[in-house]
Design goal:
The protein is an alpha/beta fold. Helices cover 38% and strands 15% of the residues. Helix 2 runs parallel beside helix 10 and helix 13 packs across helix 15. The structure holds pyridoxal-5'-phosphate (PLP).
Length: 379
Protein backbone atom coordinates (compact mmCIF):
# COMPACT_ATOMS: atom_id res chain seq x y z
CA UNK A 1 0.00 0.00 0.00
CA UNK A 2 1.22 3.52 -0.77
CA UNK A 3 1.73 6.13 1.96
CA UNK A 4 -1.45 8.17 1.41
CA UNK A 5 -3.62 5.05 1.54
CA UNK A 6 -1.88 3.84 4.69
CA UNK A 7 -2.41 7.24 6.32
CA UNK A 8 -6.16 6.97 5.76
CA UNK A 9 -6.61 3.23 6.40
CA UNK A 10 -3.72 2.35 8.71
CA UNK A 11 -6.00 1.94 11.73
CA UNK A 12 -8.39 -0.46 9.95
CA UNK A 13 -10.05 -2.45 12.67
CA UNK A 14 -11.73 -5.59 11.34
CA UNK A 15 -12.62 -6.83 14.85
CA UNK A 16 -15.14 -4.12 15.47
CA UNK A 17 -18.46 -5.98 15.58
CA UNK A 18 -20.75 -3.13 14.47
CA UNK A 19 -18.65 -1.96 11.53
CA UNK A 20 -17.85 1.54 12.80
CA UNK A 21 -15.55 3.29 10.32
CA UNK A 22 -13.57 4.96 13.07
CA UNK A 23 -11.70 2.99 15.73
CA UNK A 24 -13.79 3.26 18.91
CA UNK A 25 -12.39 5.02 21.98
CA UNK A 26 -12.05 2.04 24.31
CA UNK A 27 -12.30 4.07 27.50
CA UNK A 28 -11.67 1.11 29.79
CA UNK A 29 -8.94 0.24 32.25
CA UNK A 30 -9.55 -3.48 32.37
CA UNK A 31 -11.06 -6.41 30.43
CA UNK A 32 -13.10 -9.49 31.36
CA UNK A 33 -10.99 -12.63 31.15
CA UNK A 34 -12.46 -15.87 29.73
CA UNK A 35 -11.29 -18.05 32.64
CA UNK A 36 -8.57 -18.60 35.17
CA UNK A 37 -6.58 -20.60 32.67
CA UNK A 38 -7.15 -18.67 29.46
CA UNK A 39 -6.38 -14.97 29.07
CA UNK A 40 -7.98 -12.62 26.59
CA UNK A 41 -6.01 -10.48 24.11
CA UNK A 42 -6.30 -7.49 26.44
CA UNK A 43 -5.78 -7.62 30.20
CA UNK A 44 -5.13 -4.13 31.54
CA UNK A 45 -4.89 -0.82 29.70
CA UNK A 46 -1.40 0.10 30.86
CA UNK A 47 -0.17 -3.01 29.06
CA UNK A 48 -2.37 -2.48 26.00
CA UNK A 49 -5.61 -0.86 24.89
CA UNK A 50 -7.29 -1.40 21.50
CA UNK A 51 -7.42 2.30 20.59
CA UNK A 52 -3.75 2.69 21.45
CA UNK A 53 -2.89 -0.52 19.57
CA UNK A 54 -4.61 0.87 16.46
CA UNK A 55 -2.51 4.03 16.74
CA UNK A 56 0.70 2.07 17.33
CA UNK A 57 0.04 -0.01 14.22
CA UNK A 58 -0.85 3.03 12.13
CA UNK A 59 2.33 4.93 13.03
CA UNK A 60 4.48 1.82 12.56
CA UNK A 61 3.05 1.35 9.05
CA UNK A 62 3.81 4.97 8.12
CA UNK A 63 7.43 4.61 9.27
CA UNK A 64 7.96 1.24 7.55
CA UNK A 65 8.43 -0.38 10.95
CA UNK A 66 7.15 -3.66 12.32
CA UNK A 67 6.66 -2.45 15.89
CA UNK A 68 5.05 0.73 17.21
CA UNK A 69 4.59 2.05 20.73
CA UNK A 70 2.69 5.11 21.92
CA UNK A 71 3.41 7.17 25.04
CA UNK A 72 1.94 10.05 27.00
CA UNK A 73 4.25 12.61 25.35
CA UNK A 74 7.19 12.84 22.99
CA UNK A 75 9.48 13.14 25.99
CA UNK A 76 7.97 10.02 27.59
CA UNK A 77 8.74 8.16 24.34
CA UNK A 78 12.33 9.48 24.36
CA UNK A 79 12.67 8.61 28.05
CA UNK A 80 11.55 5.02 27.34
CA UNK A 81 14.20 4.67 24.62
CA UNK A 82 16.97 5.89 26.97
CA UNK A 83 15.82 3.21 29.47
CA UNK A 84 17.28 0.64 27.04
CA UNK A 85 20.68 1.81 28.38
CA UNK A 86 22.48 1.04 31.64
CA UNK A 87 24.62 3.14 33.97
CA UNK A 88 28.04 3.72 32.40
CA UNK A 89 26.72 3.73 28.84
CA UNK A 90 27.42 6.69 26.57
CA UNK A 91 25.35 8.41 23.89
CA UNK A 92 26.51 10.65 21.07
CA UNK A 93 23.78 13.16 20.32
CA UNK A 94 23.32 16.07 17.95
CA UNK A 95 24.27 19.43 19.43
CA UNK A 96 21.09 21.17 18.32
CA UNK A 97 18.51 19.03 20.08
CA UNK A 98 15.00 19.98 21.11
CA UNK A 99 15.45 21.80 24.44
CA UNK A 100 13.31 19.33 26.40
CA UNK A 101 15.35 16.39 25.10
CA UNK A 102 18.58 18.12 26.09
CA UNK A 103 17.13 18.78 29.56
CA UNK A 104 16.03 15.14 29.95
CA UNK A 105 19.48 13.88 28.94
CA UNK A 106 21.54 16.37 30.96
CA UNK A 107 19.47 17.00 34.06
CA UNK A 108 17.77 13.64 34.56
CA UNK A 109 19.69 10.83 32.87
CA UNK A 110 23.21 12.05 33.62
CA UNK A 111 22.26 11.64 37.32
CA UNK A 112 21.94 7.93 36.57
CA UNK A 113 25.45 7.75 35.11
CA UNK A 114 24.52 7.80 31.46
CA UNK A 115 26.86 10.12 29.63
CA UNK A 116 25.89 12.30 26.66
CA UNK A 117 28.22 13.93 24.15
CA UNK A 118 26.64 16.68 22.06
CA UNK A 119 28.28 17.25 18.70
CA UNK A 120 27.91 18.03 15.01
CA UNK A 121 26.62 14.75 13.61
CA UNK A 122 27.71 15.59 10.07
CA UNK A 123 31.34 15.39 11.21
CA UNK A 124 32.29 11.70 11.30
CA UNK A 125 35.85 12.50 12.41
CA UNK A 126 34.56 14.10 15.60
CA UNK A 127 32.05 11.27 16.16
CA UNK A 128 34.85 8.73 15.74
CA UNK A 129 36.95 10.58 18.31
CA UNK A 130 34.08 10.40 20.83
CA UNK A 131 33.42 6.67 20.45
CA UNK A 132 34.70 4.39 23.17
CA UNK A 133 33.82 0.92 24.48
CA UNK A 134 30.93 2.40 26.46
CA UNK A 135 29.24 4.08 23.49
CA UNK A 136 25.84 2.51 22.84
CA UNK A 137 23.70 4.98 20.95
CA UNK A 138 23.66 7.82 18.45
CA UNK A 139 20.77 10.27 18.80
CA UNK A 140 19.86 12.57 15.90
CA UNK A 141 17.20 15.12 15.06
CA UNK A 142 16.76 16.30 11.49
CA UNK A 143 15.88 18.96 10.46
CA UNK A 144 17.16 20.52 13.67
CA UNK A 145 15.37 23.06 15.81
CA UNK A 146 15.35 26.02 15.19
CA UNK A 147 18.03 26.41 12.50
CA UNK A 148 16.84 23.57 10.28
CA UNK A 149 20.20 21.94 9.69
CA UNK A 150 20.07 18.49 8.13
CA UNK A 151 21.79 15.37 9.44
CA UNK A 152 22.74 12.73 6.87
CA UNK A 153 20.77 9.70 8.11
CA UNK A 154 22.22 7.20 5.60
CA UNK A 155 25.83 8.02 6.46
CA UNK A 156 25.26 7.74 10.21
CA UNK A 157 23.23 4.56 9.66
CA UNK A 158 26.21 2.88 7.98
CA UNK A 159 28.57 4.22 10.63
CA UNK A 160 26.42 3.06 13.55
CA UNK A 161 25.96 -0.45 12.04
CA UNK A 162 29.72 -0.75 11.74
CA UNK A 163 30.20 0.21 15.39
CA UNK A 164 27.15 -1.78 16.59
CA UNK A 165 25.41 1.28 17.99
CA UNK A 166 21.68 1.89 18.28
CA UNK A 167 20.89 4.78 15.95
CA UNK A 168 17.82 6.78 17.00
CA UNK A 169 16.24 9.53 14.89
CA UNK A 170 13.71 12.00 16.31
CA UNK A 171 11.60 12.46 13.17
CA UNK A 172 9.18 15.02 14.66
CA UNK A 173 10.09 17.93 12.36
CA UNK A 174 9.75 15.89 9.17
CA UNK A 175 6.85 13.60 10.02
CA UNK A 176 6.76 10.18 8.33
CA UNK A 177 5.32 11.80 5.22
CA UNK A 178 8.55 13.65 4.43
CA UNK A 179 11.17 11.29 5.73
CA UNK A 180 11.46 7.66 6.89
CA UNK A 181 14.61 7.07 8.94
CA UNK A 182 14.24 3.25 9.26
CA UNK A 183 14.70 2.44 5.55
CA UNK A 184 17.54 5.00 5.53
CA UNK A 185 19.42 3.03 8.20
CA UNK A 186 18.13 4.15 11.61
CA UNK A 187 17.24 1.53 14.24
CA UNK A 188 14.60 3.48 16.14
CA UNK A 189 12.37 6.42 15.18
CA UNK A 190 10.74 8.62 17.80
CA UNK A 191 8.03 11.22 17.34
CA UNK A 192 6.42 13.92 19.32
CA UNK A 193 2.97 13.21 17.86
CA UNK A 194 1.95 16.44 19.57
CA UNK A 195 3.24 18.13 16.40
CA UNK A 196 2.61 17.03 12.77
CA UNK A 197 1.22 13.54 13.42
CA UNK A 198 -1.60 14.88 15.60
CA UNK A 199 -1.59 18.04 13.54
CA UNK A 200 -4.33 19.98 15.33
CA UNK A 201 -2.65 21.27 18.51
CA UNK A 202 -5.07 19.29 20.65
CA UNK A 203 -2.98 16.47 22.15
CA UNK A 204 0.39 15.76 23.77
CA UNK A 205 1.58 12.29 22.70
CA UNK A 206 4.71 10.41 21.64
CA UNK A 207 5.52 7.39 19.50
CA UNK A 208 8.40 4.97 18.93
CA UNK A 209 8.76 2.76 15.84
CA UNK A 210 11.36 0.09 15.10
CA UNK A 211 12.04 -3.18 13.29
CA UNK A 212 14.42 -4.94 15.67
CA UNK A 213 12.41 -7.57 17.54
CA UNK A 214 14.75 -7.82 20.49
CA UNK A 215 14.76 -4.05 21.10
CA UNK A 216 10.99 -3.96 20.55
CA UNK A 217 10.44 -6.58 23.28
CA UNK A 218 12.54 -4.54 25.67
CA UNK A 219 10.61 -1.38 24.82
CA UNK A 220 7.20 -3.03 25.30
CA UNK A 221 8.50 -4.24 28.65
CA UNK A 222 9.62 -0.71 29.56
CA UNK A 223 6.30 0.76 28.35
CA UNK A 224 4.35 -1.58 30.62
CA UNK A 225 6.78 -1.53 33.54
CA UNK A 226 7.22 2.25 33.68
CA UNK A 227 3.71 3.07 32.50
CA UNK A 228 4.14 6.35 30.62
CA UNK A 229 1.33 5.50 28.19
CA UNK A 230 -1.21 7.70 26.42
CA UNK A 231 -4.93 7.29 27.05
CA UNK A 232 -7.56 6.05 24.59
CA UNK A 233 -9.03 9.51 23.87
CA UNK A 234 -5.65 10.97 22.91
CA UNK A 235 -4.86 7.85 20.87
CA UNK A 236 -8.10 8.41 18.97
CA UNK A 237 -7.28 12.07 18.29
CA UNK A 238 -3.82 11.11 17.03
CA UNK A 239 -5.38 8.51 14.73
CA UNK A 240 -7.80 11.08 13.39
CA UNK A 241 -4.96 13.53 12.79
CA UNK A 242 -2.92 10.95 10.91
CA UNK A 243 -5.70 10.41 8.37
CA UNK A 244 -4.93 13.81 6.83
CA UNK A 245 -1.17 13.89 7.43
CA UNK A 246 -0.21 13.65 3.75
CA UNK A 247 -2.62 16.39 2.67
CA UNK A 248 -1.62 18.72 5.48
CA UNK A 249 2.11 18.17 4.91
CA UNK A 250 1.80 19.05 1.23
CA UNK A 251 0.22 22.38 2.12
CA UNK A 252 2.63 23.05 5.00
CA UNK A 253 5.55 22.58 2.59
CA UNK A 254 3.99 24.63 -0.21
CA UNK A 255 3.23 27.56 2.12
CA UNK A 256 6.64 27.37 3.80
CA UNK A 257 8.45 27.53 0.48
CA UNK A 258 6.50 30.66 -0.52
CA UNK A 259 7.16 32.29 2.84
CA UNK A 260 10.87 31.43 2.77
CA UNK A 261 11.17 33.07 -0.66
CA UNK A 262 9.24 36.14 0.51
CA UNK A 263 11.39 36.56 3.63
CA UNK A 264 14.61 36.12 1.71
CA UNK A 265 13.69 38.98 -0.60
CA UNK A 266 12.63 41.31 2.23
CA UNK A 267 14.97 44.19 3.04
CA UNK A 268 14.37 44.03 6.83
CA UNK A 269 15.26 40.35 7.05
CA UNK A 270 18.81 39.18 7.67
CA UNK A 271 19.14 35.37 7.46
CA UNK A 272 16.47 32.89 6.41
CA UNK A 273 16.85 29.24 7.39
CA UNK A 274 15.01 26.75 5.20
CA UNK A 275 16.53 23.55 3.76
CA UNK A 276 14.81 24.08 0.41
CA UNK A 277 17.21 26.89 -0.59
CA UNK A 278 19.80 25.59 -3.03
CA UNK A 279 22.54 27.34 -1.09
CA UNK A 280 21.45 25.88 2.27
CA UNK A 281 24.59 24.04 3.49
CA UNK A 282 22.81 20.66 3.62
CA UNK A 283 20.38 21.18 0.75
CA UNK A 284 21.57 18.14 -1.17
CA UNK A 285 21.19 15.80 1.81
CA UNK A 286 17.70 17.20 2.42
CA UNK A 287 16.78 16.61 -1.19
CA UNK A 288 18.06 13.05 -1.04
CA UNK A 289 16.39 11.97 2.19
CA UNK A 290 13.22 14.09 2.33
CA UNK A 291 10.21 14.20 0.04
CA UNK A 292 9.92 17.98 0.50
CA UNK A 293 11.47 20.59 2.78
CA UNK A 294 8.96 20.83 5.61
CA UNK A 295 6.75 23.48 7.15
CA UNK A 296 9.30 25.20 9.38
CA UNK A 297 11.09 28.44 8.47
CA UNK A 298 13.34 30.47 10.78
CA UNK A 299 14.65 33.96 10.13
CA UNK A 300 16.49 36.79 11.84
CA UNK A 301 15.91 40.50 11.49
CA UNK A 302 18.47 42.92 10.13
CA UNK A 303 20.01 45.24 12.78
CA UNK A 304 17.47 44.29 15.38
CA UNK A 305 17.44 43.79 19.12
CA UNK A 306 15.03 41.98 21.43
CA UNK A 307 12.74 45.04 21.68
CA UNK A 308 12.30 45.40 17.90
CA UNK A 309 11.85 41.66 17.50
CA UNK A 310 9.14 41.72 20.14
CA UNK A 311 7.40 44.59 18.30
CA UNK A 312 7.37 42.61 15.05
CA UNK A 313 5.93 39.55 16.82
CA UNK A 314 3.26 41.69 18.53
CA UNK A 315 2.07 42.98 15.14
CA UNK A 316 1.44 39.54 13.69
CA UNK A 317 -2.28 38.75 13.47
CA UNK A 318 -2.43 35.25 11.95
CA UNK A 319 0.82 33.84 13.28
CA UNK A 320 0.26 33.30 17.00
CA UNK A 321 3.10 33.51 19.49
CA UNK A 322 3.13 30.05 21.09
CA UNK A 323 5.30 27.06 21.89
CA UNK A 324 4.93 23.95 19.72
CA UNK A 325 4.56 23.44 15.98
CA UNK A 326 3.02 21.23 13.36
CA UNK A 327 -0.63 22.23 13.78
CA UNK A 328 -2.89 23.46 10.99
CA UNK A 329 -2.63 27.02 12.35
CA UNK A 330 0.49 29.13 11.85
CA UNK A 331 2.54 29.79 14.97
CA UNK A 332 5.63 31.84 15.64
CA UNK A 333 8.17 31.22 18.33
CA UNK A 334 11.13 33.09 19.75
CA UNK A 335 13.86 30.47 20.35
CA UNK A 336 16.07 32.70 22.52
CA UNK A 337 13.33 33.24 25.12
CA UNK A 338 11.24 30.09 24.58
CA UNK A 339 12.62 26.74 23.35
CA UNK A 340 16.27 27.61 24.02
CA UNK A 341 15.90 29.76 27.13
CA UNK A 342 17.68 27.11 29.18
CA UNK A 343 20.98 27.78 27.33
CA UNK A 344 23.19 30.71 28.31
CA UNK A 345 23.20 33.70 25.94
CA UNK A 346 26.76 32.83 24.92
CA UNK A 347 25.81 29.21 24.12
CA UNK A 348 22.82 30.45 22.13
CA UNK A 349 24.76 32.94 20.06
CA UNK A 350 27.51 30.38 19.40
CA UNK A 351 24.97 28.18 17.62
CA UNK A 352 23.23 31.04 15.77
CA UNK A 353 20.26 31.66 18.05
CA UNK A 354 20.43 35.46 18.06
CA UNK A 355 17.86 37.63 19.90
CA UNK A 356 16.15 38.55 16.61
CA UNK A 357 15.65 34.94 15.48
CA UNK A 358 11.99 34.06 14.87
CA UNK A 359 10.83 30.51 14.17
CA UNK A 360 7.70 29.98 12.10
CA UNK A 361 5.57 26.87 12.08
CA UNK A 362 3.80 27.57 8.82
CA UNK A 363 0.20 26.40 8.89
CA UNK A 364 -2.19 25.44 6.11
CA UNK A 365 -3.97 28.80 5.80
CA UNK A 366 -3.88 30.77 2.54
CA UNK A 367 -0.26 31.62 1.71
CA UNK A 368 -1.18 35.14 0.53
CA UNK A 369 -2.75 35.94 3.90
CA UNK A 370 0.29 34.60 5.75
CA UNK A 371 2.68 36.65 3.63
CA UNK A 372 0.54 39.78 4.05
CA UNK A 373 0.61 39.22 7.83
CA UNK A 374 4.42 39.00 7.85
CA UNK A 375 4.76 41.92 5.47
CA UNK A 376 2.60 44.10 7.66
CA UNK A 377 4.49 43.18 10.83
CA UNK A 378 7.88 43.79 9.19
CA UNK A 379 6.80 47.30 8.16
C1 LIG B 1 8.08 18.76 20.95
C2 LIG B 1 9.24 17.91 20.67
C3 LIG B 1 9.62 16.88 21.53
C4 LIG B 1 8.91 16.63 22.85
O1 LIG B 1 7.63 16.17 22.65
P1 LIG B 1 6.41 16.42 23.69
O2 LIG B 1 5.28 15.77 23.01
O3 LIG B 1 6.29 17.90 23.86
O4 LIG B 1 6.82 15.75 24.96
C5 LIG B 1 10.69 16.10 21.17
N1 LIG B 1 11.39 16.32 20.06
C6 LIG B 1 11.06 17.31 19.20
C7 LIG B 1 11.86 17.50 17.96
C8 LIG B 1 9.98 18.14 19.47
O5 LIG B 1 9.68 19.13 18.63
Amino acid sequence: MKFNTKAVHGDHNPDNSIGAIMVPIYQTSTYRQPSLLTHGEYGYSRTSNPTRTALEKAVAALEYGQFGLAFGSGLAAIDAVIRLLSPGDEVIAGKELYGGTYRLFKNIWERYQIKFHFTDLNDLTVIRSLICLKTRMIWAETPTNPLLNIVDIKTIGIFSKKHKLIFVVDNTFSSPYLQNPLPLGADIVVHSATKYLGGHSDIVLGCVVLNDEDLAKKLYYIQNACGAICGPMDSFLALRGIKTLHVRMQRHCENASKIAAFLRAHNKVDKVYWPGFEDHPNHQIAEAQMKDFGGMVSFSLLNSNLQRTSEVIQKLRIFTLAESLGGVESLCGHPASMTHASLSEKERISIGIVPSLIRLSVGIEDAEDLIADLNNALK
